[in-house]
Specification:
Layout lengths: L8 H24 L8 H8 L2 H8 L9
Length: 67
């Protein structure tokens, strides 16, 4: 626990809740980096890969149906 916080049940639960929030935030950030076209990982591939390879991979992605 932090030295400035009194140690009781409330501070322990608040610390556990904040730890859970940080874990969820990092998990979602890592999930967002998966290189699938709707996610940001595909845009990172555009920066890393040469253009002809990137667009060669992205032609296999089927856009979602919008009906």
């Amino acid at each position: 626990m932090y030295y400035w916080a009194p140690v009781n049940d409330a501070t322990i639960y608040i610390a556990m809740f904040l730890q859970y929030l940080v874990l969820m935030n990092v998990s979602l950030a890592v999930f967002n980096l998966i290189p699938v076209p709707p996610l940001d990982g595909s845009r990172i591939l555009l920066v890393v890969l040469p253009r002809h390879i990137y667009f060669g991979l992205m032609k296999y992605w089927i856009p979602p149906c919008t009906t």
